[in-house]
Amino acid sequence: CGLCFRHQQVNQTKSLYELYNRFFPFCLYRITKSYNKKLHDTKKDLFSSVSQFKPSGKQLTLLEIGCGTGANFQFFPPGCKVVCTDPNPFFEKYLTKTMEENGHLSYDRFVVASGEDLSSVEDESVDVVACTLVLCSVRDTPQTLREAQRVLRPGGAFFFLEHVISDKETSWTYFCQHVLQPFWYYFGNGCEMTRATWKHLQNAGFSELKLEHFQAPLIFLIKPHIMGYAIK
């Protein structure tokens, strides 16, 4: 009957989605190695400022939104306690391996959660929130930034590194980003090349924002990047 057929289709879709979620961490683990190699100095420079947000006499607590395979762990300061969040539960296996390779950190826990809903994390409970190559794929960027501010203590900082839409609307890159976006979205786990993420950061209500536009040494579609940090 038609109802049985639709039920079967739903089950097949769920199975395919779970298979994709299992396969994506495997792909990302290899992609991030290449990304880290090309932007090693950039990440090192960005996260060198994290230590200044360590509370006096206390351990620095850092929460990472969309931690993925733990590509940023090597850049976090020694002694830092890391809370990892990601909506994909199949990243945990890779996280465990990466954490073992980064003994300078203290691993707190892994929370399966999207950036828009960090309800399992208490208000004002972390010193730093890190978010790299994540705001391009969250469903609600302003809500993700509100959640980051909620979990940050007063004076804490939100660190970011994101690829964005070209700020030159007449450029070839800008044109191709829009034309190829539908394809990129489905094969990039919901990633969007056409987001002007810096505008959301400017409107998020942080007390201070340090933001830099730069061209990353990557394919032209994702060369435009922003990096920096915002203080609550």
From TrEMBL:
It comes from the Eukaryota. SUPFAM superfamilies: S-adenosyl-L-methionine-dependent methyltransferases. Residues 63-160 form the Methyltransferase type domain. InterPro entries: Methyltransf_11, SAM-dependent_MTases_sf, Thiol_S-MT. Signal peptide: none annotated. GO terms for molecular function: S-adenosylmethionine-dependent methyltransferase activity. CDD domains: AdoMet_MTases. This is Methyltransferase type 11 domain-containing protein. It comes from Neogobius melanostomus (round goby).
